[in-house]
Amino acid sequence: MTTAGTEPPAPAQDPGEEISVEDITKRFGAVQALSGVTLAFPRGRVTALMGENGAGKSTLLKILTGDHQPTEGSILWNGRPRTLSSPHDAHKAGIRIIPQEPEIIPHVSVAENVYAGALPRTALRRLDRAELRRRITADLARLGFEKVIHPDQLGSELTPAQRQLVEILRALTGEAKVIAFDEPTSSLSENEVEALFGLIDRLRDQGIAVIYVSHRMKEIFRLADRIAVLRDGTVAGVLEARDTNEGEVVRLMVGRDLSSLFVRQDVARDEVVLQLEGVTTDDVSGIDLHVRAGEVVALAGLMGAGRSELALALAGDRPIRSGRVCVNGSPLRLRSPRDAIRASIGLAPEERKAQALFLHRSIRDNTSLVSLDRLRRWRFVRSRQEKAVAQDFSDRLRVRTPSIEHEVRKLSGGNQQKVVLARWLLRKPKVLILDEPTRGIDIGAKAEIYRIIADLAREGVALLVISSELPEVLGLADRIVVMQNGRITGELNRAEATEEAVLNLAMADDLAPVAADRPLTDSADGDAR
């Protein structure tokens, strides 16, 4: 076992030792998830595993970690077949996976979450809290996370980013030989991402085989030595990262060229649909903003800039302390999400699973959720009409599913996002706010989401898009409004917008954060609260 608080030692392996899979096929009933997959994951190298949602990446990782057994084929360790019949077998062999959705015990501390199953004990078999604190403090310092997470925080108090860090710490206890990261940066800040990349570089240098799953091309080309691409359950190709480019990787992933990924158009009208005047909440201050019919306005900024908080306030989920919010010139009182829905404002939030979807309910139920008042007759929902409209929007948005009665939790991230969009298309909002609309979804699904956004703009919907991906911001927006510390620092039109210009405004250092204890103030007639 690794001594906590020290660098994990290079595993005792022969120079050529590696884990690989040979002719792996996996069937779930009539569905074939993998077919004849042969891949090697060499020690001391970072192998990026890429592919659209549904390409087989998650299935392959679950086979490597003992969660699934292959229908056919073998797992090889240094060229010799090895059976991993359970996650315990895989963990014992030194294989770790850091999942996209962390599994955290809510009622115990960070330290106990990290060392769950291997807690230090005293001679009387009681929890040795002093030793536990020494280990977790040393590990946080070693990995560069001591400023972003506290050992005594309860699991229930952790942010999504902190939950991800706990999973990383947990994976690095013991003698890891293969570590797989599944979309590890989806909830991390820029500083946390850099700390993670430094950690992965050190793991590579120590001879550990790293498997890195991400849809973010910039990360892939920053970290990867090799890029393995899956398409429809088969290996589409394995490329040396230094010898390829984004275009070639995308063509392998989707089987076509996506050079026209963004649908640029000029359909904005003169009519101002959404108008914000001096909007102030506990998180943002003095926000002046307008969005016209058919216009795509992007809110850019770094994590903590206040963009999502502003979106939640406009959706009636956070109190507005002062200022005015108007739709088509009419002032609103946004005291609840119901007020926003009635005012024809829709929100597709950043955390779609936690904030937007009923994961154990059907596509039909999730699609019709905010339109039940329009589907009722007397006190009863007209089920035939509900099914018809849910099927119609599922078809229009190309949701990949065997049935609209399928549970949403079983869909890929891209298809889940389409269900959220279908909900609002059915409602026909005048204003639609999209917070990180393509986070965690593959490049093919991104192209379809961009098409939907273009279609909505053509129909005259006022679109406010929040995104942390600068190429997406530049590709989608007619105008870019940049926030920092809860305030707007500038605005750029399409002609003058560049990544450098956006970042200069996002990193303005002369703004103090908005005070959280701002007193409640009354505003003029009709102001939102």
UniProtKB/TrEMBL annotation:
Keywords assigned by UniProt, alphabetized: ATP-binding, Nucleotide-binding, Repeat, Transport
Name the Pfam families on file: ABC_tran
- Residue limits of the ABC transporter domain? 19-257, 267-510
* Listed PROSITE patterns: ABC_TRANSPORTER_1 (PS00211), ABC_TRANSPORTER_2 (PS50893)
Q: Which GO terms describe its molecular function?
A: ATP binding
Against PANTHER family, the record matches this protein to: CARBOHYDRATE TRANSPORT ATP-BINDING PROTEIN MG119-RELATED, GALACTOFURANOSE TRANSPORTER ATP-BINDING PROTEIN YTFR
- The protein, known as: Sugar ABC transporter ATP-binding protein
